[in-house]
Amino acid sequence: MFRIGHGYDVHKLVEGRRLILGGVDIPHTTGLLGHSDADVLLHAIMDSMLGALALGDIGHLFPDNDASFKDADSMKLLEAVCRVIDEKGYRIGNIDATVIAQAPKLAPYIVTMRENIANVCKCDVSQISVKATTEEHLGFTGEKLGISAHSVALMIKK
Ligand code: ZN
């Protein structure tokens, strides 16, 4: 009836890349490096959804040696994951995700991220929680070398 999943992802911050989190293009001096658009929040969320159904991870679904996923819009990948979940007979109960970034301040973008995710997943925004925190200048996120994200997802059999 219920299945729970966890997802974790990290991307490196570099100059000359856009910073896209939860489908929001955020103005910043550095952006996330990756084969796709490197939306670390959506990647953790997708891994938690797939993990709940023991379907592996997004690297398995969208291999990074596949040129068609180069600079891929992670919102489109999320749409594909939602289709897989639907085909397996499950729907989202709720998702709770945390982005860990020293900078920039993410509070102004959180509502839009939640709305973007809820729209693609065809669920209510109240089912999607996104939080942001720092690691108090400690470690790679604290030194602004990268951004990480955690997510847990509860899936319910339809
Ligand atoms: Zn990723």
Provide the descriptors you would attach to this structure in a database record.
158 residues, 5 helices, alpha+beta, 5-stranded mixed β-sheet, two-stranded antiparallel sheet, binds zinc ion
* Rg over alpha carbons: 15 Å
Unique bound compounds: zinc ion
Percent strand equals: 25-35%
Q: What is the H/E string?
A: EEEEHHHEHEHE
Helix content: 25-40%
Number of helices: 5
Q: State the strand order across the main sheet.
A: 4-1-7-5-6
Q: Tally of extended strands?
A: 7
Give the CA-CA distance, first to last residue.
Answer: 8 Å
Question: What is the structure about, briefly put?
Answer:
With 158 residues, the chain is of the alpha+beta class. The chain contains five helices and seven strands; from the N terminus they run E-E-E-E-H-H-H-E-H-E-H-E.
Topology:
Layout: E1 2-14, E2 19-21, E3 24-26, E4 31-32, H1 40-52, H2 58-61, H3 74-87, E5 90-100, H4 110-121, E6 128-133, H5 139-142, E7 146-157
Parallel strand pairs: 5-6
Antiparallel strand pairs: 1-4, 1-7, 2-3, 5-7
Helix pairs in contact: 1-3, 3-4
Bound molecules: zinc ion (ZN).
